[in-house]
Amino acid sequence: MEKTPVKLYLDLDESLSWQETLSEKEEKETKKIEIPLTFISAKNSTEEKYSEEISFTFFPDGTEEFGIIIFSDPETKETFSLFLNPYSSPELIKGEINFEEKYSF
Fold first, then answer.
1. Is residue 47 within 8 Å of 40, Cβ to Cβ?
2. What are residue 81's phi and psi, to 5 degrees?
3. Among residues 11, 31, 42, 103, which one has the fewest Cβ atoms lying within 10 Å of its Cβ?
4. Closest by alpha carbon to 10, among 38, 80, 98, 74?
5. Region 82-104: what's the mean pLDDT?
């Protein structure tokens, strides 16, 4: 059985998620899952979005496409950033991260 990349899709407006295997051979109905979070923004290697849909690719070797998903928990009102690092495991960071901002230590 050949392993193929998988795309994870997020609908930022409707708080939905679904996945599709990147294979022309496979044609099946996609099940969308409601996520109890409020999406603020998402960025992958080619685009940044504040609404509509965005996707992230996960590869068979365990790596993933670069990405940042910023969301809030409606119950606690806390904001989090999920950083998809192609070179290591995904990281969940409390607060909103911005790689374009300059920090001083």
1. no
2. -125, 125
3. 103
4. 38
5. 82
Task: Give the domain ranges of the chain.
Answer: 6-22+32-94
Confidence at 40, pLDDT banded by 50, 70, 90: very high
Residues β-bridged to residue 6: 21, 58
**Encoded amino acid at 70, one letter:** I
Judge whether 56 and 44 are in contact, CB under 8 Å: yes
10, 16 contact by CB (below 8 A):
yes
Predicted local confidence at residue 34, as pLDDT: 94
At 100, list the tokens.
């374009």
Give the helix/strand (H/E) hosting 98: none
Yes or no: say if 97 and 82 are a contact pair by the CB < 8 Å rule.
no
CA–CA distance, 8 with 55 (Å, rounded to integer): 5
Supply 27's token pair.
């044609």
Give the single-character DSSP code of 77.
-
Cβ atoms of residues 42 and 22 within 8 Å:
no
